[in-house]
Design a protein that fits this description.
This is Major facilitator superfamily (MFS) profile domain-containing protein. It comes from Rhizopogon vesiculosus. One of its GO terms (cellular component) is membrane. It is found in: Membrane. This protein has about 130 residues and is an all-alpha fold. The chain has one domain. About 85% of the residues lie in helices and about 0% in strands. Helix 1 runs antiparallel to helix 2, helix 1 crosses helix 3 and helix 2 crosses helix 3.
């Protein structure tokens, strides 16, 4: 999860600014590869963590995560066209990269240092 939290914002920046300044087509494609790798790696790490943590209730934990991910996929197209029209591709993807850094980068450290304490607070975790 540590490398994935770095890949996602870097990919957003490469994609956005590569599209903004009309570079060769491979530059935004490289950015999209990094974005995709960051998303998939993060998603796989989160799923593995949830299955290992909530063994008996793993299906419910994965369903809740999938529901949250699907709601984000529903909401993003509602504001994305307006955001990109107002900011352009470079600044719009920079905004997404900053959000990914603010939310994503602290998460692995929080789970690394406080994961056991967080898990112990749940009544659904098997000790």
């Amino acid at each position: 999860m540590f490398p994935a939290t770095i890949l996602l914002p870097i990919g957003c920046l490469i994609t956005g600014w590569g599209s903004q300044v009309h570079t060769h087509w491979i530059v935004p494609d490289i950015g999209i590869v990094l974005v995709g790798a960051g998303i998939i790696l993060n998603f796989q790490c989160i799923q593995t963590y949830l299955v290992d943590t909530f063994t008996l209730h793993a299906a419910s934990a994965l369903a809740a995560t999938t529901c949250l991910r699907s709601m984000a996929g529903f909401v993003f197209p509602l504001f994305a066209p307006a955001m990109y029209n107002a900011l352009g591709f470079g600044k719009g993807d920079t905004l997404l990269a900053v959000i990914a850094i603010i939310i994503g980068c602290p998460a692995p450290f929080i789970f690394w240092y406080y994961g056991e304490e967080i898990r112990n607070r749940s009544r659904y975790v098997r000790s």
